């Protein structure tokens, strides 16, 4: 079964170009981990007025990228991104699940 997961995160104002650059150059081993873990599609949208990110994932199963925090490559990515995002003490991004209210 394919499930959609949506959540929001926030980058630090002025970090938009760097955030884009880092994702344009996402590490192949991280991309592979996501795909191997059942993340079929993953899109992130930026609201430039608020520096808010809106992410949508299609996953095979119940879990998505937010459930991979024990993986070394994910922890390394979090550390790499921590200087430009709102994060927790362990460098994981502050992520707020979004509730689906409409689907066509």
TrEMBL record:
- Mind listing the UniProt keywords for this protein, alphabetically? Carbohydrate metabolism, Cytoplasm, Isomerase, Rhamnose metabolism
Top-level taxon of the source organism: Bacteria
The keyword Isomerase appears for this protein: yes
Q: What is its EC number?
A: 5.1.3.32
Q: Pfam families under this entry?
A: rhaM
- Judged by the first EC level, this protein's enzyme class is isomerase
**GO molecular function: any one?**
L-rhamnose mutarotase activity
Q: Does the keyword Cell membrane apply?
A: no
Coiled-coil stretches, from where to where?
Answer: none
The name under which this protein is listed is L-rhamnose mutarotase
Species in which this protein is naturally found: Belliella marina
């Amino acid at each position: 079964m394919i499930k959609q997961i949506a959540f929001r995160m926030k980058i630090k104002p002025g970090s938009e170009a760097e955030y884009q650059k880092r994702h344009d150059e996402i590490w192949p081993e991280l991309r592979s981990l996501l795909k191997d873990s059942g993340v079929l599609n993953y899109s992130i949208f930026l609201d430039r007025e608020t520096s808010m990110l809106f992410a949508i994932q299609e996953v095979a199963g119940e879990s998505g990228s937010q459930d991979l925090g024990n993986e070394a490559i994910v922890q390394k990515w979090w550390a790499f991104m921590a200087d430009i995002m709102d994060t927790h003490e362990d460098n994981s991004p502050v992520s707020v699940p979004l509730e689906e209210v409409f689907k066509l």
